[in-house]
Each structure stands twice: as C-alpha cells, then as structure tokens.
Amino acid sequence: MENLKELIKNYLSTQRLMSVATYGETPWIANLYFVHDTDLNLYFLSKKTREHCVAIDTNPLVAVAIADSHQPLKPPQLGIQLNGTAQAVTLLDQVKWMFSMWNKLIAPDIAEQLKNPKQFLETGAAQIYRITPKRIKFFNTGLWPKEQCQILNL
C-alpha cells in the first residue's frame, strides 16, 4: 500500500489541473488548479460565491478526476479518480503552507503571487479548500496492463 501511495504522490506532482464534481441544488463540475500534500489531500483556491464552493458548503462530498489531456489514446495511460470530502481551510499555518506551494508550483512566473495569508483570511472574498480523499483509483496501464488500475482506500 505504501508503494501505491508513493506512486500516486509522484503522479500528482506532475499534474496541476483537476475536475471537481459537487452536488448542491444540482450536480456541478469545475476545473481547478491544485496542489497536494504528503497525505494526498488536494488544495484549491476559489471565490466563495462560485457554484462548486456554494455546493461544498451545502454538501461536502466530492468526486475528482485528474488526467493529462495530452496523453495518447493508446497505453500507457495514467489518471486518478477519487471521492472524498471538501472543506474550507481556516488555520493560518495551513494557508501559509498552501500559499508557499501555490507560488512554487502553480504561479512561479506570475507577478501577482499569493501573499499575506492573514490578510487573505480576513478579506474573505476567496477561500482555500482541502479535499480529503477516502478512495483513490489510480489508472496506470503501463504498470498494470491487465488490471489497469489499483485502488487505495484511506
């Protein structure tokens, strides 16, 4: 299981965009940039008024898909599907960590990097969310040509 977790972490390190499915009043899906931590939690930044954030406030259950759209139709193919829960991150230390990761991985060349986590929390226009996976299905037809995927239950 630890080897599978490492394989998933390595794959997540190569990706930056995920699709997050939510269900509030209706089903909804949003494409979002993300970073991850060593426990395979995914973090994203979004305005609180976006449809997916409003849905998360109502129903924290989410599903996520991560795949490189440039990969060929033939093997090897890689991707992740997972389900779990999403919640707002409100602790200053977690926001500082996410800012650091975001600036390093998502926005290294952007002049307006995320700064001042305390002010960010106080302003309240945008929010950082953490997705805690419960079940991860990792597709890797190069490693597992017959089974095609492995499942990690957390």
Distance between the termini: 10 Å
The sequence of SSEs as H and E is HEEEEHEEHHEE
In the predicted model, the low-confidence regions spanning at least 5 consecutive residues are: none
Q: Using only CA atoms, what is the Rg?
A: 16 Å
How many strands in all? 8
Helix content: 25-40%
Number of helical stretches of at least 4 residues: 4
CATH superfamily membership: Electron Transport, Fmn-binding Protein, Chain A
The appropriate CATH architecture is Roll
Strand content: 35-45%
Average residue-wise pLDDT: 88
Describe the structure.
Residues 5-136 form the Pyridoxamine 5'-phosphate oxidase N-terminal domain. Pfam families: PNPOx_N. This is Pyridoxamine 5'-phosphate oxidase N-terminal domain-containing protein. By secondary structure, the protein is of the alpha+beta class. Helix content is 26%, strand content 39%. The chain has one domain (2-153): Pnp Oxidase, Chain A (Roll), CATH 2.30.110. It has 4 helices and 8 strands; from the N terminus they run αββββαββααββ. Strands 1, 2, 3, 4, 5, 6, 7 and 8 form an 8-stranded antiparallel sheet that branches. A hairpin with an 8-residue loop joins β7 (126-140) and β8. The longest helix has 14 residues, at 92-105.
Ordered list of secondary-structure elements with their pairings:
Elements lengths: L1 H11 L4 E7 L3 E7 L1 E2 L5 E6 L3 H8 L2 E6 L11 E12 L2 H14 L11 H7 L2 E15 L8 E5 L1
Antiparallel strand pairs: 1-2, 1-5, 3-4, 4-7, 5-6, 6-7, 7-8
